[in-house]
């Protein structure tokens, strides 16, 4: 089976305060099949090299956006990256077919509890629903969208031992993406992909 090359785009505006995302990013950097890019370090003035970013996309089969889920969206540099790199004629439009067939997934950390991301919870929507603009971006560009890899209650993850199990799931996810062994159809009804990796069994509960 074909092995996938993975492009990980990491966006964290306050890395010195990151207890969750930094360890995941550091582990990904150690893998020879992952190209791990720290967008804030690469572009401290937001002067994104469109050609370089498009060449990176062309050379990889899987695209991961890794970021803390602040205010139900991506950090600003990741939005700037999308606006500039995913341009007409490259990522979409009549001749924009460069991304077709690639896998796309978000790896996020959320400060709130899992039950807060439900119809009757504090945030009123699931994380998959809140990430629908990115799901639609994948659809428009011809990429195959996978439900997000998510850690809830991220502020306390270090203290309640959730980080170690989350890192273990992260390793499983990266291996599965590399080996192209994820059954995409099995993920269509999931809120997060964690359940497929042995995570919470309540993530599909929209109540």
UniProtKB/TrEMBL annotation:
Molecular function per GO: electron transfer activity; FMN binding; NAD(P)H dehydrogenase (quinone) activity
Record keywords: Oxidoreductase
Bilayer-crossing regions: none
InterPro entries named among the record's database cross-references: Flavodoxin_fold, Flavoprotein-like_sf, KefG/KefF
Record domain Flavodoxin-like fold: where: 5-171
Keyword field contains Transferase: no
Top-rank taxon, per record: Bacteria
The protein, known as: Potassium transporter KefG
